[in-house]
Every structure is written in structure tokens, then in C-alpha cells.
Write a structure and sequence with these properties.
By secondary structure, the protein is α+β, with helices and mostly antiparallel strands. Helix content is 60%, strand content 12%. The protein has a domain of 56 residues.
């Protein structure tokens, strides 16, 4: 029977094979089907492999006496960098064709839409080895219905990995929609932690700015602002898309599921507003740093101008007296040199007084 075969598949452990470690390494931690992890919620979470998941999906599609319990559902998380993952999904699931079109199209813009009884979502998240670079973001593709949740990524991501760890540690999940809500909450936690770290960095830059030390702050502020702008461009459409979806949810989604998703979306919006405020703060600091740099540049130009003005009488008089023509005044005078020096000093004093008087007026 299907039930017994499914139980055997869940309990059976695949024996070790030669070269198995090298295969896992080549597929970045996923199995031969590209599956990173799988859990069967019936109602508690039980780890499941690709073979057992295929048997469960076959029983679910057959809709006979071996059909799993109505309150059970399956979560499969794939490494889409492995080409076997898409082939396995096409062979063993009846996911909407729009999901495969999205995967093949490589679209990274945030979107959440409903296709008949299925939800499709393309969300962006921080990579697992995030290093505060604008390029350290990647895409997570999601497809879910009442009985199946499929997530896939090409690069390791933080939020979905935190979700995997929480499910592994026994976090209760009520339904497939509740799993999506928990993913959003983990995304909120990741972004909130990022916002706190960036706030600390901005505080440090601000303290250095107030103490008059300008070294390297412009580059640091520019990098943080670029990161915040990229994150806002990628993440801001997500709450709006979810709110639009929740206005007309699928029939299988309960009122509790809708409320959980709405609460998670509101928390997500709050974090995004904090990031927008942080970006405005970085922008103001950049303007303050630019004003200080312009002030220092103005002071340097003023000093250069004063030196040029003070040296101008010397250059003019030296040029006139050095023409070696007849009629040079005081050429035969016993104190001619001292007289010329006095005239030069007088002109320099007048020019310096005029220059510093203009500075004091400013």
C-alpha cells in the first residue's frame, strides 16, 4: 500500500556510497535531486528526503485511500544552482507553469501574485556571508499552496536558513501560509539586525565627525548609503505586494493565516521605515562632511590668495627695477635699497590688512 511504502521511505536511511561526500560538495550541500532540506508537517515537522517526498506527492496527487492527512503539508527547499532541482520539480510536482517561467527567466524584482490556488513570490534577502556590500543580496523563489511549499535559491540566504533551523529545532508550524509568515518574520529579524549594525556604524562616523576627524568617513558613508538604497529598491515592493494579495486571499487560507501574514507584513514595513530613516541620516551626514570639506578647501584657497597678494608688490617692484634701462630711480642714491625695501614692506602691510579685514567682515 501507498501508506506503508511512504512510511518505509521516511524511515529508511540511504546507505553510504563511495564518492558521496564529493557529490554533496559539488551540489553545495544538496542531494542528488538538488534538495537542501525537506520537512513533512503532519502536524509536527519530520525530515524527509527526495525519495520519500516524491512518494508523498504521488500519493497526494492520486487522491485515493492512501492520501495523506488533510492537515499535513510538505516543505521542500532546493538549491536552484543544481540543474537537477528544476527537473525533479517538473517531474514530481504539479506546480504552476508560471513558477518555472519565473525560474527560467531569472527575474529578481520583488513580486507576490496569485495563480489560481497557488501563491508565487520572488523575494530578495541577504546572502549568508553578507559583508555590507550592495552586491551581497540574492533572490529566493517561493511557490506554495495548501499542501506544498517549495522554496529555492541559487546562493545561501540568511532568512530561509534561519527558518530551516527553527523548524529543525521544533518551532510549531500550523499551515503552509504560517510557514510563509514565519519566513517573513525571520526576514524582519535579519533586516532588523542589519539596521542595528548600520546604526552603530553611523553613530561611530557621527562621533568622529563631531570630533573633527574626517579620515575615511566619506567612503564609509557612501558605501552604507549605496547598500541602503539597493535594499530599499529590492525590498520596498514586498509589503505592498503582500497587502494587495491579502485583500483577496486564496480560499484555502484561513482567517488566522491571513492575520498572521498581515502582522508579519506590518513588521516588515516598520523595519523598512527604519532603514529609510537611517538612509536620510546618512544623507545628512554626507552633506555635513561635504560642507566641512568645502570649508577646508575654502580656507586653503584663502591662504593661497593672501600669499599671492602679499608677494605681488615684491614681484612688481623687482620686475620694474630689474629691466636694466636708464632712468631707474634711486640708482645712485646712497640709501636707495632701504627706501625700496620700505616701499615694499608698506605695500605688503596694506595688502595684508585689506585681505584680513575682508576675512573678519565675512
Amino acid at each position: 500500500m501507498i501508506v506503508s511504502s511512504l512510511s518505509n521511505a521516511l524511515s529508511r536511511k540511504e546507505p553510504a556510497r563511495p564518492g558521496r561526500a564529493s557529490t554533496a560538495e559539488a551540489t553545495f550541500g544538496s542531494d542528488a535531486a538538488g534538495l537542501i532540506c525537506g520537512y513533512l508537517f503532519a502536524p509536527t515537522a519530520t525530515p524527509i528526503g527526495a525519495e520519500a517526498a516524491a512518494a508523498w506527492l504521488k500519493a497526494d496527487l492520486a487522491a485515493d485511500d492512501g492520501t495523506p492527512a488533510p492537515d499535513s503539508f510538505l516543505w521542500l527547499h532546493f538549491n536552484l544552482a543544481d540543474k537537477a532541482a528544476e527537473r525533479w520539480l517538473a517531474e514530481h510536482t504539479d506546480l504552476a507553469e508560471a513558477f518555472f517561467d519565473t525560474l527560467r527567466g531569472g527575474l529578481h524584482s520583488t513580486r507576490v501574485e496569485r495563480v489560481e490556488q497557488t501563491l508565487l513570490a520572488v523575494v530578495n534577502d541577504l546572502q549568508f556571508d553578507f559583508a555590507f556590500e550592495p552586491s551581497d543580496t540574492a533572490t529566493l523563489w517561493i511557490c506554495l499552496n495548501r499542501r506544498l511549499v517549495v522554496t529555492g535559491r541559487r546562493k545561501p540566504l540568511r532568512s530561509v536558513d534561519q527558518l530551516r533551523v527553527s523548524v529543525r529545532d521544533g518551532e510549531p508550524v500550523r499551515s503552509s501560509a504560517d510557514l510563509l509568515a514565519q519566513l517573513l518574520r525571520h526576514q524582519v529579524d535579519v533586516l532588523g539586525d542589519l539596521a542595528r549594525q548600520m546604526t552603530n556604524r553611523v553613530d561611530e562616523v557621527e562621533d568622529r565627525l563631531l570630533s573633527g576627524r574626517l579620515e575615511h568617513k566619506r567612503a564609509r558613508l557612501g558605501a552604507m548609503r549605496r547598500l541602503l538604497v539597493r535594499l530599499q529598491r529590492l525590498l520596498l515592493p514586498e509589503p505592498a505586494a503582500l497587502f494587495r494579495l491579502l485583500q483577496h486571499p486564496p480560499p484555502w487560507m484561513t482567517e488566522t493565516d491571513v492575520q498572521d501574514l498581515r502582522d508579519a507584513t506590518e513588521e516588515f514595513s516598520v523595519v523598512l521605515r527604519d532603514m529609510v530613516a537611517l538612509q536620510e541620516r546618512v544623507k545628512l551626514l554626507q552633506e555635513e562632511v561635504a560642507a566641512q570639506v568645502n570649508e577646508q578647501t575654502g580656507r586653503s584657497l584663502f591662504v593661497l590668495t593672501v600669499v599671492t597678494v602679499l608677494a605681488l608688490p615684491i614681484n612688481i617692484i623687482a620686475g620694474l627695477l630689474g629691466m636694466n634701462v636708464g632712468g631707474i630711480p634711486l640708482a645712485e642714491h646712497a640709501h636707495g635699497f632701504l627706501i625700496i625695501v620700505g616701499i615694499v614692506i608698506t605695500f605688503m602691510f596694506v595688502a595684508g590688512w585689506w585681505a584680513f579685514r575682508k576675512k573678519n567682515d565675512d
